[in-house]
Amino acid sequence: MRNPIVESHAVLLFSPFRTLNTALKDMMENIIEGESITPANYTKGRGLGNIKKVALALDVMALPSFNHPVTGGNTRQRQTEVPSDDNFFCHFLLLLFSSSPKTANASVGGSVVARRGVVVTDETVCSIIGRAALYRGGHAVDAAVAAAFCLGVISPSYSGIGGGGFMLVRRPIRMREMAPQRASKDMFRSDYMKQQIGPLSIAIPGQVAGKAHSKYGKLKWESLVKPAENLARNGFNISHSLFRSLKGFEPYILADPGLRAIFAPKGKLLPLGSTVHFVKLANTLAALSKNGPGAFYNGPIARSLARDIQAAGGILTLEDLQRYRVVIRSPLVANTMGYQFITSPPPASGGAVMILIMKILSNYNMTGVHITLVIHRLIEALKFALALRTNFGDPDFVNVTSTLETMISTSHAQKLKSLINDNKTFDPTHYGSKWGQVYDHGTTHACVVDEKRNVVSMTMSLNSYFGSKFVSPSTGIFLNNQMYDFSIPNRGTLPQSPANFIQPYKRPLSSMAPTIILKGTQVKAVIGAAGGLMIPNAVTEVLVNYFHLRMNPLGAVLAPRFYHTLYPNVLYHEEYSSAGSDKYSCGPEILKGLENKGHMLQKGHGWTICQFVVQNLEGPNSGKLMAVTDQRKGGSPVGY
């Protein structure tokens, strides 16, 4: 049945070759709920190289061959005999996804339905590697760790072991980077660009120290790192998404010897689809695989990493690495709309922003409300939440309790709702803004649910594309530029928040929002997004689409998005073609309605990538999981 809300909200045009993983998705297009995996319905598309790479990464060996003709299924697909090389993939998928038809669940257009468990990332290869960990009896954390290492290899513009992030396993694990001991609030006053690019922008990485595996993992550490090591050593194909990042930052790629050696060995960027190898990173991963996560912070890897950074002009030392500590604290919890929202507290601020918006909107009856008014109310609530967000910082250094209590307060949400006018918007001062925003960037997100309904929502980042634009020459590690997420005195036109000024071993403010939603004691949803300051926008819009507008999970993620950062006072509407040529556009009627309310409109891009899992808790389908990967970047969720 056609959904008029979705149709009025979105114009989505899909190409049959939209991601590098089209071949994988097409091969499995009709494999949902009981249909067996066969070579039928197979399109010879892009991405076969990386599917073969994941087979090698997982050490799939000596597979038998199919010689069946392709028949039936989707009429847009060719009917031909599957070539011998493709037989490898068919059998690999058979082994990987199922030993019986009813346990096989594969992605259809970015979504999958599964009974036992799901892994959702923006890289199909990494989803498969994570799901393999689940299939071997691993905990959700095992799958998340394996997927994270994979993402750090195959998607190096967004994340990697030289970065950090936040993992939520009902309890939040804060693996956010820390400022080095010699860092100070005035260190970038004379040259702001050094905060953004180069060795001074590097904060102490935290991803490898995440502690989650030692606390929850069932599988051997080595088995989780090995697939990523194999990918780095054997090579993988440059995807549309990675190639777009390379083209966008070509001058920086060519300027750094490490990046240039990998992506432009002959002085020009490698073309789309080229195979790249990270040999030095593979050696580092091999050492971590053998010696455990502690080897990153103490020993040959740590010494080499610190030496490389200092030789390039940075201040990070071996002692800084040795002093890095993961923090495990109580989550931020709030109840609204009959659900319990669990998210990471500061210095991750996106969850608090999302909770306040959802609490404000819960005071409205959305039944029959035009989509234009829904968007207007959401954006107005967002502005109030963003104004409060600027008071946050690292709770180990500043007191954020009062602001947190305000943002999860039902009475405060009701007060802010009374300040929203359904017919017009206001100047930014109306929303209580006092400080300038921190514009963090990049990231990647993964969601995992296992058979016992253990859950992981995890966001990881190098911050900007390719982080500091510096690769450690001896270790091959792509390094973050998280120092760029600190506020700097007297930078910009607005005052900067002292709560987020640089101090030694302080963690910068982040917009990440890994979130788990419960109904009673049962998991209802898992969500998170990539996209820096726009993350709270994306997560909240998807949740509003699902819970308030009753869109299905796939429609909730695919619907075009609106973005606001309070300053500048501009409402950005998505007008975007993804790496795979999908089109995201908002209808003219909606735009005109928002303009009539006083919003200054401007075309925006696909700034956010959202991953979403929903568990059906009612009726005959109770217990089934629907997982969605945002097709703005590509990738596929997998389940079993």
Automatic annotation (TrEMBL):
Keywords: Acyltransferase, Hydrolase, Transferase. L-glutamate binds at residues 176, 461-463, 485, 510-511, 532. One of its GO terms (biological process) is glutathione catabolic process. The keyword Transferase applies. GO terms for cellular component: plasma membrane. GO terms for molecular function: glutathione hydrolase activity; leukotriene C4 gamma-glutamyl transferase activity. Transmembrane segments: none annotated. The active site is at residue 443. Pathway: Sulfur metabolism; glutathione metabolism. Gene3D superfamilies: 1.10.246.130, 3.60.20.40. It catalyses: an S-substituted glutathione + H2O = an S-substituted L-cysteinylglycine + L-glutamate; an N-terminal (5-L-glutamyl)-[peptide] + an alpha-amino acid = 5-L-glutamyl amino acid + an N-terminal L-alpha-aminoacyl-[peptide]; glutathione + H2O = L-cysteinylglycine + L-glutamate. Its EC number is 2.3.2.2, 3.4.19.13. Cleaves the gamma-glutamyl peptide bond of glutathione and glutathione conjugates. This is Glutathione hydrolase. It comes from Striga hermonthica (Purple witchweed).
